[in-house]
Amino acid sequence: MSVLPTSHPPSEVESAVPNGRAAALLEAGLGLAPTGDAVNAFVAQCRHRAAGLGVSEDAYYDLLAAGGSSARSEWIAMSPALTVGETFLFRDAGLWKLMERRLLQSIAGLTQPVWLWSAGCSTGEEAYTLAIVAQRALGGTPFCVLGTDINPNAVAAARVGVYTPWSLRGVDANRVDELVVSGTQTLRVRDDVKKLVRFEVHNLLDEQAYPPAGMASFECIVCRNVLIYMTPAARAAVIERLAASLAPGGVLVLGHGEAQGIPVEPLIVERHDAGVVYRKPLPAQVSKPPRPERPASVRRIGVRDTDRSRAASFGHRATKAAQSRAAQTAAAVTGLDPCHRLLALAAQQARVGNTETAERKAALASAANPLAPEPYVLLAALYAARDAFTSAEAALRRALFLDPACIPALWQLGILYRLTNRNRQAAVTLARLLARLDGLPAEHVALPFDQLTVQELQTLLRAALEQQRD
Fold first, then answer.
1. Backbone phi and psi for residue 110, each to the nearest 5 degrees, phi listed first
2. Would 376 disulfide with which of 148, 306, 357, 395, CB 3.0-4.6 Å?
3. What is the pLDDT of residues 348-372, one digit of tens each?
4. pTM of structure
């Protein structure tokens, strides 16, 4: 799920670099098609990395061309400047229905635990979607999801598992509660889903990076909207390695048209209404595969068994958790001043979905202390949740007038700019917020309504700023 940023016209220094060599290296290292924008961005990044290492540009090109561990590290280090992740939960709903109703059930009997791989997962939404769907489809069959991406900042954000409403644009509103724990400014993936997923940095084109994270074979590999930015030769090489990573009977899911013109043997093409998938055939002499357990030597890498009763108890546990949070909030508000007491109650109502009540209490909180910025931040989040973006922006500007360095207001305004397609303003606001966080203790709570720490918010901001880059 990577796209190349639009670059500016090359400078004189960039023009002096042998672009033919740069194009060849870009294709060899990342498999990216050497378009003018891609090569210019690559040349600029090579110059930056060379200066940081204290070597000439020619020496840096030689390092990349030589291969080996140093070159692999440099490709990983450069990737944030060359790729930008674009993804969201349940992207392409028809495909996920196919996964849940047919594909995952067809691999449930192959082995235990079942291994699933989201390759090129960006900030993790696809990997978490895969885990959520697998919970429903596999029932009590134990499974583990591996999410990989070449961008270390995206992988770090994926491990946090916190998103904005923008990442839910592929989700039916009636199903949001079963997917995430809602805060007021963010959405956090549920712990029972997070523990089923692990994330690692991985370059799909690097032959030495296989098997990924020590996992030798997978029953399902999902790699969508990644290969379309690669050259045909690079796509063929990646598909060959993904196919080799499939267990017999396993399925490979690619994006629309990404395998066009690429030989996929020995995979069998299966055509469905929601798209084309590729299955690795079972040995001819085996009519029905046994259900062996993976050997202990490979199970130790972090596979966790699922709880058979998880799906049945999901709603009950969510209700109990909401009741527990309500009790904690009621205890915490005792002794607060009227403004912050009303604000705490408003936040509690927002978390359990009582948005109208939350708005009323937040408005009362702002009336109780018109000079406090926090009620306006919460009001803005509530307005934005019902697409009242003009009112949300007015509330945030009021909060920032009262406190120009208000961290929750800057975060909310940056996300609001993104929701309304004002990407340049979003980038400036989020960069300002990242600078504001510099020097604060890592465990300090940056977003009080959501209990998000400074370190977590910094991680999300670095990934978000890469996504906003023009």
1. -75, -40
2. 395
3. 888 877 889 999 999 999 999 999 9
4. 0.77
